[in-house]
Design goal:
Layout lengths: L56 E2 L1 H10 L11 H17 L20 H10 L3 E2 L4 H4 L4 E3 L11 E6 L3 E10 L2 E6 L2 E6 L5 H7 L2 E6 L16
Antiparallel strand pairs: 1-2, 3-8, 4-5, 4-8, 5-6, 6-7
Helix pairs in contact: 2-3
Length: 229
Amino acid sequence: MIGRARWWPGMVAAALLVACGGRPSPELAPAPDELPDAVVPDELPADAPAGPAPEVRLDAERLRAFLRARDSLGTAAVADTPALAALLALSVVDTARAYLGRPYRLGGQGADGDGFDCSGLIQYAYRVHGITLPRVSRDQAWLGAPVERRLDQLRPGDILTFGRRRGGVTHVALYTGEGRFLHAARDGVRESPFVESDPYGRYWLRRWLGVRRLLQAEGLLPVARAATP
């Protein structure tokens, strides 16, 4: 079991990315619900991007600097690549958690005190690890590899996408583990239960469209663009 709060020396030197996946599988989208829109997400509904497929870019030097700062042994190597990807994902989650309570601001994307919107928070949490994501939720919803839309399939660092089936993706959040998710909501950055037994979690579960996973254990280099479906 990987400890959540500690970095194993030398274990994050090979984080893995699968970038620019295809569109979310239609069968993963729930039927539209009829709940009121009082807490509706941050961005206008949008379909798939009209231009080129969104990309994940890896700033190798920034990532190496990040890893050196957290690796007391510097050159130590461990071959357990799934553990490496998991550790990096946990660090992304911890970065986002550092901004709990930060106010919501449409267009906000930095840690300068002005706040975040949903996609800006996720972009920032990955960017400080040298991983550059597209800016808006509709593009982030195309990244990485699709994951089956089941709670027992989720891992920390997964991007959860939300919206109405006919309206497309309008909101994104980070799964943080143990049945919880973190996002920039209208009342600010918060972490909440993502379970049916919790009213707030149930609200978002009914708008949950899919899951995208960026951190994998299948190779050392990001794939710049997936084949068009």
